[in-house]
Amino acid sequence: MNEASLTALLLTLQYASLATAIVFVPGMLIAYVLARFSFPGKVFVSALTSLPLVLPPTAVGYLLLQMLATDGILGREILGVDLDILLTGKAVVVACAVMSVPLIIRTARIAFEGVNDRYEAMARTLGYGPVETFLRFTFPLAARGLLAAMILGFTRAMGEFGVTVTIAGNIPGRTQTLASAIFSAQQVGNDHEANFLVLVALATGFCAILAAEFLSLRGARRRKSP
Amino acid sequence: MSNGHEIRAKLNLPLDRFTLSVDLKLRRHVTGIFGASGSGKTSLLETVAGLRRSAQGMLRLGDQLWQDSYRGAFMPPERRNIGYVPQDALLFPHRNVRANLLIGQRRARCQGQDVEALQQEVIALLELDALLERNVDTLSGGERQRVALGRALCSGPRLLLMDEPLASLDLGMRRKLLPFLRTIRQSFDIPMLLVSHDPIEVQALCDELVVLQDGQVIAQGEPRVTLMQASRDAAEFAHLVENVLPCRFERHEGEATLVRIGLEGDGPLLTLPRVSGAGASAQMIAVRSRDIIVSNTRPYGLSARNVLPGVVRRVAAAGKKYLVFCAVDRSAVELAVEVTLASLQELDLKPETPVFLIIKATTLELC
Lengths: 226, 367
Description:
Structural class of chain B: alpha+beta
Number of helices of chain A: 10
Largest sheet of chain A: none
Oligomer: heterodimer
Strand content of chain B: 25-35%
Radius of gyration of chain B: 22 Å
Number of strands of chain A: 0
Largest interface: A-B, 19 and 28 residues
Strand order of the largest sheet of chain B: 7-8-9-3-10-11
């Protein structure tokens, strides 16, 4: 394993962790609102949050590129400050965040929907306000499903490619991630390196999915017992 | 109960099939909310708990206003100080029994109650000692309900709401848990609302009964008379048991078991077919008013095992039939007997008429 690959792997872990950390809490709150409340336009919000799952990543990347360009809605000319995101590590984090939050929201929503809302009513009658009820009862009861959501979101971020190369490029040592390193290795015919990187990706992905499945199953079994 | 405990509820709540619409003034210790399933009982209880925000109207406990939709007042459930015991217990699966019991202690402490003493009392009354460290999903149905009851009481509630606390249990377990509810009734001077569709349960526990049908109150009052009225007015309440009396096991005699009825031990003995084991620890005995025969002379040559002298106290009309309430042996024990107008006139049954009550041993049920 050469140094560039190692750097790519470490960078990927950092960017994916950061992206997951940033979007997990807001994603979870959106999921809770979608699971528990009905409001006008709920279907629309629900569809919007899932959109990145079905759009071609290059399309998402293109939209972000438009927004972050100098004259875009998040660009220097409109904001008045330069966020300096494109082609930097920040762009990788943005790409990872945008692509993993739909998965987090979907999985967390299922976790919340699996918690009988009468437990929340029960907690209210025992003297706990809505926020405390969420923190002390809903959250721990949904914890396994939420952990699964976090793992899936993190893995999605680890494997992000399309959006990343569009807005962050593929700069070794700066924006090159595991996915783009595999792409580069394969492009230049370095099969040995590509094989190794693919193996790493396979192993992390497989473990993550296993863990998530296990947690969801256990969570479901636990909530079923009255 | 003092006036500080009075529940005033004038509520409207649209449900799927009908609108729950009640206008209640409840001032007794334990009030039963009785009715067939789907009559709005649980919705009423949830509205009182503050869990149905869409309910319109006014609700107060004593001098505390809980809800007044005309003035836009609504007190959220966490500030109402209620203990809620649902049918399925709803114990928190991520906590053990002890932690479940302690969940509401913060509120009890805020009100300046002696939390430790309260917990000790509840644990002793409900015999929860051996369960404290258990995981809640290892509990049996009966244990679960006891813990749910304990959790509600440990939160120091001003009002106890019980939603069919025994309905999910089989008959044997139900009869075993009934004494616990009676103990709670005796030990806690807080108003209680008990939702139930078990006539024996409501008579064993309630001072007053509210009968709901399709969201409307169709009868309210003393449990026996109210049940009787309801059973006449609505076909779904036929086959009710009107007489549920406290009793104590006395002795076995051959193939028979003798129990003494009445709280003070001054009541007469009743004979019933021999019961074994758990039956001997029963605290209540039930008999339908239509299973009792009333006679104005002492009968002889009868197969019925129980012939009790008594005196008519009062007569209440219930639809086309009449309930004659008779004091047995001039004790405090009162039995309701169902008669037709013809019998009432022929026997000239009016207060102070001496009578004999005849009860077949096999119509008596221990519970």
